[in-house]
Design goal:
By secondary structure, the chain is α+β, with helices and mostly antiparallel strands. The chain is about 30% helix and about 15% strand. It has five helices and eleven strands. A hairpin with a 4-residue loop joins strand 10 and strand 11.
Length: about 260
Amino acid sequence: MQRNHRAGFTLVELLVVIAVIGILAALLLTAVAQVRGRVQRIQCANNVRQLGLALQEFRTDHNIYPPVLNSPIGTGTWSYDLQQEIESHYIQGWHQNGIWKCPAAPAKFPPNPNSRFKTEHLGFTYYGYNVDGFRSNTETNSLGLGGHYIWIGPDFPKYSPVNEFEVFSPSEMMALGDGLIGGNNVISDGTSVLRRTDVVQDYLGSTKRAYARHQGKANVVFCDGHVESPTLKFLFTDTSDKALSRWNRDHQPHRERLLP
């Protein structure tokens, strides 16, 4: 009487096992990446919320919003004004650490392949201020929080602050958030302003980085302090009144600024 003995898997069975393991591993990695992305978005939203609280404290103390440059209290920029509300003394490197650093954003731009210096990097700013409102054509017709432009020479721009009462609907106006400039399906990242405009360039894959940052969303805090995570398409592509009016302190969409 004969018996058949099998020493192990056949080649086909081995390939099937490897394929199943590969599929399971891919599903697991995808799930882990999604969870990690959600955690980072929550951490970033908390950062933005803290910056929003600092903005409210500044507004309560001075009855104005911090101008983009040449602040009346002497700290120079909007971010310095908020940092002074957070810490009363100077901390070196504050703008790249703590609540000023988005955990999902790259620490710096990738190397510029066109540069003679292969290690060249440009600075990266994680959070930006709604300086201009929707598609400001010049400094003089800005509807954001950056201030009223005062011409005193090309090298010395000055801004008179936006008063608290000038923001018609604080709960409907974005104040600051992830540092992105977007329009026409192109997004530039790592900026100190949050802006929607038609003049924007993709810098070394910045559009792809922006969409990967928070899974196609961005964190923004409004003038009343509440935080939302709208999609990048809503921020930079949507032309509805709701999407456009949230950029402007008069809470109007200003559709006349849309390009024909």
